[in-house]
Amino acid sequence: MLYSEIVMDHFQNPRNVGEIKDADGVGEAGNPRCGDIMKIYIKVENDHIVDIKFKTFGCASAIASSSMATELVMGKTIEEAWNITNSAVAKALDGLPPIKMHCSVLAEEAIHGAINDYRRRQGLEPWEDKSHDELVDEHSHHFHHQG
Amino acid sequence: MLNASPDEIYFTSGGTESDNWALKGVAFTYRNKGNHIITTKIEHHAVLHSAEYLAGLGYDITYLGVDEEGRVSVDDVRKAITEKTVLVSVMFANNEIGTIQPIAEIGRLCREKGVLFHTDAVQAVAHIPIDVKAMDIDLLSLSAHKFYGPKGTGVMYIRKGVKLDNFIHGGGQEKGRRATTENVAGIVGLGIAIERAAGKISSEKSRLTALRDGLIEEIMARIPYAKLNGAAGDGRLPNNVNVSLIGVEGETLLMDLDMFGIAASTGSACSSGSLDPSHVLMAIGLTHEQAHGSLRLTLGESTTEEDVAYVVEKLAGIVERRRNMSPLWEDFLKAEERSEKNAL
């Protein structure tokens, strides 16, 4: 598997690994069947994501995608964070091999999951998670929210 | 090496061609006798895909299951044989999990029943003793590069007197049974490699078995919840170790090991380009999580005790680090804690 240098860097030195005990939102995506599970924790203050941590079971691109996604989202407003797409994650990683694109989709799903979990805890309606492109068609990712 | 005579040896382009020849050759040659072939769920794709191709042509294929160590039951073979059965094909030893099959017993059964018996011995030749006569083997596939010979060269053993249609038609090479100009360089290389291997098969077998068992023992001692896949002891190839390390994904393991100059393989779907984990690991009843966390380490003639210690050291560190960032590991530990509490 040929990965970009950025993917290798984020795989070997993942940023924001861990969990936030008193998180304001938690999102999980993926399933053990396809071999990737991502869990993302966010801390929100004044509508901004002030802290973010992740845990990922999966291949190098899954770990790198989660790491990059947390970097892209950190410091953003909730709405800005929601609008960060899987393609933005893949692009920031300098590309992913075609069969690994679903890893970036998982990262987007996990962040959406965390944001909607946060919204729910605030008594707000969760946002609709629009469907992704054809890249996920072979995967039946469940998308479950905690809390 | 096989206790075969020279006129029973036919050079091919490798194990895959030999397997194709055995399955399709027997199927076509004996199509008037029957259309039933028995094989197993854990064969190499050279056998499985040939069998699927034949199924598409109308042949009836039985895929026998295996026990949790990956062993085929001789009784299952016996029960599967019908009047229509023309071939039983069971691999000598599995490439992924190293389990050695009861080849002599299956051979005796097939001989009694008058059914041809083929074994894909690619993983076994030059590593463990094989006697085609004592084991009642009619057809056997082997590949040179599995014992340090050149790639692209193999052998099909065809017991004297076994009728088998040609697979490659053309000139009169290989006693008229396999056309095409011989790969002379490959054949010479294969000959030297097998001679070299024959001289030290028993010393290498005991040396590698000791290294293998040391490696397994150390992995079990150092890595919590490591699980050995395949048989232990004499029922396993001397050079094969396969473990499942729950909570870590196989491709991640391979890439981390590669950083330390360690080459390994995995049955995880993530490294295969497909979405399904290894058919062998699924056949022995592993969960997807266990199959995705599988790691195969193969020992060879250059492997030393120092190498084993180095691999264990690096692997233990990698697994600990990756498990600490794995939500699957977190869930696994919680489930373990719950079941321990329930047990108390």
Protein described:
The complex is a heterodimer of chains A (147) and B (344). Chain A is α+β, with helices and mostly antiparallel strands and 147 residues long. Chain A is built from 5 helices and 4 strands; from the N terminus they run αβββααααβ. Chain A has a 4-stranded antiparallel beta sheet. In chain A, α2 packs across α5 (101-121) and α4 crosses α5 (101-121). Chain A is globular, with a radius of gyration of 14 Å. In chain B, 47% of the residues are buried. In chain B, α4 (103-113) links the parallel β4 and β5 (116-120). In chain B, strands 1-7-6-5-4-2-3 form a 7-stranded mixed beta sheet, sandwiched between helices. Chain B has a 3-stranded antiparallel beta sheet with strand order 8-9-10. Chain B has 11 helices and 10 strands. The longest helix of chain B has 22 residues, at 201-222. Chain B starts with 8 loop residues before the first strand and ends with a helix. Helix content of chain B is 40%, strand content 14%. The mean pLDDT of chain B is 96. With 344 residues, chain B is of the alpha/beta class. The A-B interface holds A 1, 11-12, 14, 17-18, 28, 32-39, 54-60, 62-63, 99, 138-139 and B 247-252, 255, 259, 268-271, 273, 275, 277, 287-289, 292, 324-330.
Q: Quick one: how many beta strands of chain A? A: 4
Helical coverage of chain B, percent range? 40-55%
- Reported by name, the CATH topology of chain A is Sufe protein. Chain: A
* Fraction of residues in helix of chain A: 25-40%
Total domains of chain A, how many? 1
Structural class of chain A: alpha+beta
How would you write the strand order of the largest sheet of chain B?
1-7-6-5-4-2-3
Strand order of the largest sheet of chain A: 3-2-1-4
Q: Mean pLDDT across all residues of chain B, rounded?
A: 96
Oligomer: heterodimer
Note the beta-strand portion of chain A: 15-25%
Low-confidence segments of chain B, ≥5 residues, pLDDT <50?
none
Any guess at the CATH architecture of chain A? Answer: Alpha-Beta Complex
**What is the average per-residue confidence, as pLDDT of chain A, rounded to a whole number?**
89
**Number of H- or I-type helical stretches of chain B:** 11
User: What radius of gyration of chain B results from the CA coordinates?
Assistant: 21 Å
N→C terminal distance of chain B? 56 Å
Structural category of chain B is alpha/beta
